[in-house]
Amino acid sequence: MLTIGELGRATETGVETIRYYERIGLLPRPSRTGGNYRAYGEADLGRLSFIRRARALGFPLDRVRALLSLSDDRGRDCATIDLLAREHLAEVERKIADLAALRRELAAMIDSCGGGTVAQCRIVEALGPARRD
Amino acid sequence: MLTIGELGRATETGVETIRYYERIGLLPRPSRTGGNYRAYGEADLGRLSFIRRARALGFPLDRVRALLSLSDDRGRDCATIDLLAREHLAEVERKIADLAALRRELAAMIDSCGGGTVAQCRIVEALGPARRD
DNA sequence: ATGCACCCTGTAGCAGCTACAGGGTCAAGA
DNA sequence: TCTTGACCCTGTAGCTGCTACAGGGTGCAT
């Protein structure tokens, strides 16, 4: 039997976050003690660990939900899970590419700044409106 | 004179977004027509262009605000602007590194999946709780 | 009995928009 | 002139994924 605080420490999750997961239906409502405290068991620990690892890998909560329901069905073909993971990987790669493009632009902008006053600053100029001289 | 819709098309910004920027004080309140429509001028176009370019480069709104007030002071030394841009670049680089680590983990997880049922799936296993066999 | 750490519910806040609901305005066409 | 339709107005609520209260109750040690 774990209290919410113990479960939180075991999974590196804030107490409020656990209650939030319960509220949105990601964690089942646990049984309660006489004093109305939430009482968690091993299954809850497993489920929350799963959620936290998936989150740490960047899966959004709705994908975590999908992964959870897929993985509950132990006899099913795991192709769908593989697909979800691949889709997520593709998204991560897209984000990396976007950020790399951003980095190039930022670096070029910073390089162009030769100091001086704001009026002469290339950074400000680069951010300003397209001028039709 | 531009209506809010025209300004939006000129800067690729949604009308609601422009009103939002006004609400949070990023854009000044424009004058109004007889019919109470917002009436924008060249200065507004310039300012909104600046905001949108900075946003496209990933600057959060509070940094955009700082950049705007710095760049209003044309005679000032542009070192602070340069610093803000460099800080932002550093953040982008940190994000790229984080995502690259994520990508490695995801790719390794996906590689390990040899198909079969969910019960055998390495992805599910990798996400599951640490087992003390 | 008293203090303290923990637990409870419910609500509001963060970024940065986006999407209504429920109206008013304006120009063009019949 | 009337009507249609595209636009505009305000105000408020929703999105993600938490996080932070306020205002209470519980449980254990001293």
Automatic annotation (TrEMBL), chains A, B:
Coiled coil feature spans: none
Gene3D superfamilies: 1.10.1660.10
MF GO annotations: DNA binding; DNA-binding transcription factor activity
Alphabetic keyword roster: DNA-binding, Transcription, Transcription regulation
Pfam family, one: MerR-DNA-bind
Record-annotated HTH merR-type domain positions: 2-71
Superkingdom field: Bacteria
Record bears the keyword DNA-binding: yes
Keyword hit for Transcription regulation: yes
Record-linked PANTHER family: HEAVY METAL-DEPENDENT TRANSCRIPTIONAL REGULATOR HI_0293-RELATED (PTHR30204:SF94), REDOX-CYCLING DRUG-SENSING TRANSCRIPTIONAL ACTIVATOR SOXR (PTHR30204)
Protein name: MerR family transcriptional regulator
Species classification: Bacteria, Pseudomonadati, Pseudomonadota, Alphaproteobacteria, Sphingomonadales
